[in-house]
Specification:
Length: 484
């Protein structure tokens, strides 16, 4: 305990002497307040090993090895080496860091990193020194900002934007899709452009083959399901997601979003109630059971790998399977929603789909003995070349504007959606931890309701769904109050 107290005292002194820096749009404000943290003096430590905690997908797909090999080659003459921290990506830095067990650099989602920022477990960074500084939008920088005594500190560097994307198999489209499922003649299937068409297609596909489904996704995942509420006026917290006393999941016409989810669940099976679809989506999309699902851009390579295996099992060579998988696996932005909330409404009025998102990025532990070397690693890992390679190998949506535009396609679309406000970033405050359980409980109940007999249904109309959402908000409020 004495060791931990001393570590925290030293950390407090270190962070209090730091000078913060701000976001892209507030750069002038930040720079008048001072640039760069005191611990980052440019004097590179030598003969040090930087332990880097990376994303599991980046490790398994080989990107991380390429990153540290390239970094180590560049800095070998300076006596700096980056190594795999070889720790679980969900390590608890707050509890382990003070005892010396933890990474020097960590890659995590903004809500996780900023949870550590509140406890001063990570360092405020001189982000204006980074190559990516002017290429990242204000929204992404804000996800890593905290204010202390009137000053803004940035505690992480955005790498990629996480937001739900629609994955589908182009080769599973009906042969007559251009005449039947492309009413506007734009050469893009209707079912990937509107949820109304996806609903109709899913219904038809399952009717033709009881073992096949159209759209499939577990409703119990608050991260993915909440976007339907946001699309109709719901929100997480008030005042730019910083006021947890104002919980908004039931606001506006959020019940219409719940109604859409209920209608989509009706063309699925009971696997949508729990995690079953979440865990089997890779294999079921690959074997053709599912036509479409939703997931995040960073797992594109996993979907691709499963599809390649299927093609190889069907007799294709490895090269043929890789090419065919890349041609047929499509990742695109979410379909538009009906303004009315009804998936059988004949009206053509639609609204953009909003979604909950996050920003994954790098942060530096307050417990590192080599902050300047760590900053060099972050600079290297977030420069144009490495972010482009990360996007190419993992299918991520870069937070850098130049890289997103270079990659084009979905990366560019996600960047635009972030800029337009269609991606609602997870709040970077500790209270966000209290939304998941009540949210999951409501969405599980909503999914179960579809398979209940009429006399036992809880959500027979939008009014009942509105009440269910309000009850969910009350549970979140109670959990936050208890925490405080």
């Amino acid at each position: 305990m004495k060791k931990r107290i001393m570590a925290m005292v030293m950390l407090g002194c270190m962070v209090l002497t730091a000078t913060g820096c701000g976001s892209k749009s507030s750069a002038k404000t930040a720079k008048t307040a001072g640039t760069g943290a005191a611990v980052f003096n440019g004097k590179l430590e030598s003969n040090v090993k930087i332990r880097v905690l990376e994303n599991d997908t980046a490790i398994s797909k080989g990107y991380f090895k390429e990153l540290i090999d390239a970094f180590n080659e560049k800095y070998k003459d300076k006596g700096i080496e980056a190594v795999d921290a070889n720790m679980d990506q969900y390590l608890d830095l707050a509890n382990d860091g003070p005892y010396g067990y933890g990474p020097d650099v960590l890659y995590q989602a903004n809500d996780v990193i900023m949870k550590y920022a509140e406890g001063k477990h990570i360092l405020p960074l001189p982000v204006e020194e980074l190559d990516c500084y002017d290429q990242i939008p204000e929204t992404a920088w804000k996800a890593y900002q905290t204010k202390k005594e009137g000053k803004t500190y940035t505690c992480g560097v955005p790498v990629n934007v996480q937001a739900p994307q629609l994955y589908y198999r182009k080769d599973l489209l009906p042969k007559d899709w251009e005449s039947k499922w492309d009413q506007d003649g734009d050469k893009v299937p209707d079912m990937v452009q509107t949820w109304k068409s996806m609903y109709a297609f899913s219904k038809e596909r399952h009717k033709e083959d009881a073992k096949s489904y159209g759209y499939m996704k577990s409703l119990n995942d608050m991260y993915f399901s909440s976007g339907f509420l946001f699309s109709y006026g719901g929100y997480i917290f008030g005042k730019d997601n910083t006021d947890p006393s104002d919980i908004g999941f039931a606001e506006g016409n959020a019940e219409k979003g719940a109604w859409v989810l209920s209608q989509l669940a009706s063309v699925m099976n009971e696997d949508c109630i729990d995690d079953t679809i979440t865990t089997n989506a890779y294999s079921k999309l690959a074997d053709g059971t599912y036509f479409a699902t939703i997931s995040t851009p960073d797992v594109y390579s996993t979907f691709l790998g499963e599809l390649e295996k299927t093609y190889e099992a069907e007799g294709d060579t490895k090269d043929e399977a890789e090419k065919k998988a890349k041609d047929n696996l499509v990742m695109t932005t979410l379909p538009k929603l009906p303004e009315s909330g009804s998936l059988t409404d004949q009206s053509d009025k639609t609204i953009d789909s909003k979604s909950m998102g996050g920003v994954n990025g790098y942060a530096i532990s307050s417990y590192t003995k080599a902050p300047n070397a760590c900053l060099e690693f972050v600079k290297f890992a977030t420069d144009y070349k490495m972010i482009k390679k990360r996007a190419e190998m993992l299918g991520i949506a870069p937070a850098r504007e130049d890289t997103a535009k270079k990659m084009g396609g979905t990366s560019s679309q996600i960047y635009e959606n972030l800029d337009k406000g269609n991606i609602v970033l997870m709040p970077s405050i500790t209270e966000v931890a209290q939304i998941w359980t009540p949210g999951k409980t409501f969405f599980v109940d909503l999914a179960k309701d579809v398979f209940r007999t009429d006399n036992k249904k809880k959500y027979k109309d939008e009014g009942a769904m509105k009440k269910g959402l309000k009850d969910m908000c009350d549970q979140i409020r109670e959990a936050i109050t208890t925490l405080q």
